UniProtKB/TrEMBL annotation:
Keywords: Membrane, Repeat, Transmembrane, Transmembrane helix, Transport. Coiled coil: none annotated. This is Mitochondrial substrate carrier family protein ucpB. It comes from Protea cynaroides. One of its GO terms (cellular component) is membrane.
Length: 314
């Protein structure tokens, strides 16, 4: 990175001006720094919160097609540890980590360019522009990385599958269900990712601006912590139903006994009809327990890495 640290991170003025001479919009170093800092931050958060993701998937698959009392997160955790052992809490960890680098790196890296071009196109960078930019970034990133998510939830749901290993399970899915099965649930997954990224990044972005404007907080740990906590709560409320539908569709093979879900809307309808409206929030506490800390860790690590890399704050 030649020049001052700030020259790399300022998207509209730094790398853009440098690369205009070469006829390019973005420098290679800008892309590498952004993708790597974003990917590493999401991977760090994923590694620390993965057991909660396993619990979330197991909770979402309770009483498929039935109404009845649900097992709580604490009881389910004790059952898994007793029957499957501590290793079960890291089932599907390898595809989860690969996905976090690819998906996390893409969705966060696409946000700022999307916001910049929306700003240039519409002459504004208000909340709606930020929300739209986040939605676009999340949807594209998920569409490209959905196979890793399918593999992850398959491994998380079944300890016998985990023993076969990720590569063998990939070959099994491809041979028995076809390549298209890796894009099971891609519609709800894209909707969830669009809403997640939009609510997460737009809320974090706006919270930071508002707190800097109306309080004595300045760019730093306290500002990032408060903003990321609010963003985590908002994104959980917005995405929990879509997360639940996505999980059900991706585990379609395991749910044949209750009939196949044709698409996300049909899945939502069947879940509400057979399990009740609140079933869409099955695993909701586990989602918040995971997504809240994950959001905080992601933004805290990302902001620190961006600072060290010479990039400006989000």
């Amino acid at each position: 990175m030649a020049g001052s640290p700030g020259s790399v991170g300022n998207f509209p003025s730094g790398p853009l001006k440098v690369e205009q001479k070469k006829g390019s919009v973005l420098s290679a170093s800008y892309i590498v720094y952004h993708f790597s800092t974003n990917g590493i931050s999401v991977a760090t958060a994923t590694g620390l919160t993965h057991p909660l993701d396993v619990l979330k998937v197991r909770l979402q698959m309770q009483l498929v097609g039935q109404r009845g009392p649900l097992i709580g997160m604490g009881k389910l955790l004790s059952q898994i540890l007793k029957m499957e052992g501590p290793k079960a809490m890291y089932q599907g960890f390898t595809p989860a980590l690969i996905r976090s680098v690819l998906y996390g790196g893409l969705r966060l890296s696409l946000y700022e360019p999307s916001k910049y071009f929306c700003d240039r196109a519409f002459g504004s960078s208000n909340f709606l522009v930020k929300f739209t930019s986040g939605a676009f970034s999340g949807a594209i990133a998920t569409a490209l990385t959905n196979p890793t998510e399918v593999l992850k939830v398959r491994l998380q749901m079944n300890s016998n599958v985990e023993k076969r290993g990720a590569l063998r399970e990939m070959r099994k899915i491809a041979s028995e269900e076809g390549i298209k099965s890796f894009w099971k649930g891609v519609g709800p997954a894209m909707s969830r990712a669009a809403m997640l990224t939009a609510s997460q990044l737009a809320t974090y972005d706006e919270c930071k601006r508002a707190l800097i404007r109306w309080t004595s907080l300045e760019e730093g740990f306290r500002l990032h912590l408060i903003s990321s906590t609010i963003a985590g709560a908002v994104s959980t409320l917005a995405t929990a139903p879509m997360d639940m539908i996505k999980t059900r569709l991706m585990l379609q093979r395991e749910s044949k006994k209750v009939g196949g879900y044709r698409n996300g809307f049909h899945c939502a309808y069947q879940v509400i009809l057979t399990e009740g409206p609140w079933a869409l929030y099955k695993g909701g506490f586990a989602i918040f327990a995971r997504l809240g800390p994950q959001t905080m860790i992601t933004f805290l690590v990302c902001e620190k890495l961006r600072q060290h890399a010479g990039l400006k704050a989000i």
